[in-house]
Amino acid sequence: MVLVVRVSLKSSIIVAMLLKNMRHLYSLLYCDIDVERGRSPDVAVNAFKDLINKVKDDFPETQILLLSMKPTLIDDFLGKEGRKNKIITNEKWLAYCNDEENLHYVEITNPMLNPDGRLRSDIFISDGMSLNALGYTLWDPVIRKKIANLTK
């Protein structure tokens, strides 16, 4: 069973309680809202470390997949540091995942880009931030491949 959770700094305690009451083999975690709201990469990374430690304490065998922060069409409007801070946070998450057992970083940005490297606009709803069905469909094979590699 795969549990998919989108969390923020405020919801991490609730998520930890939810996870504690469920049996699952994989937890898929994603969050970009804290950085989009102007919090520093360190705050976002530390919040996830706290949540991940809680999950590991309760479910030491659970594989945790941490999705990278996605770029959005409105990153530049969220503040001049928004996109840069997402990149910094992703780099810190990748380093953290490489040092931890049962924690796996999943880079979901590449399928969101055109062949020329620009962000696709057809994968977002009108707010320019939230993915539409096509956007999530692009993530699906990336996540499935990661889970398949973990089950080998």
Explain this structure.
By secondary structure, the protein is of the alpha/beta class. The protein has a single domain, classed as Rossmann fold (3-Layer(aba) Sandwich). The protein has helices spanning 12-20, 33-36, 41-58, 82-99, 133-150, and strands at residues 2-6, 26-30, 63-67, 103-106. The protein has a four-stranded parallel beta sheet with strand order 1-2-3-4. It is globular, with a radius of gyration of 15 Å.
Reported CATH architecture: 3-Layer(aba) Sandwich
CATH class placement = Alpha Beta
Largest sheet: 4 strands, parallel
Under CATH, the homologous superfamily reads SGNH hydrolase
Poorly predicted regions are 1-19
Name the helix and strand elements from N-terminus to C-terminus, one letter apiece: EHEHHEHEH
How many individual domains?
A: 1
Q: Rg, please?
A: 15 Å
Strand content: 5-15%
| Cross-sheet strand order for the largest sheet | 1-2-3-4
CATH topology: Rossmann fold
Distance between the termini: 16 Å
Indicate the structural class.
alpha/beta
Tally of strands? 4
What fraction, in percent, of the residue positions are helical? 40-55%
Number of helices: 5
Q: What general form does the structure show?
A: globular
Mean pLDDT: 80
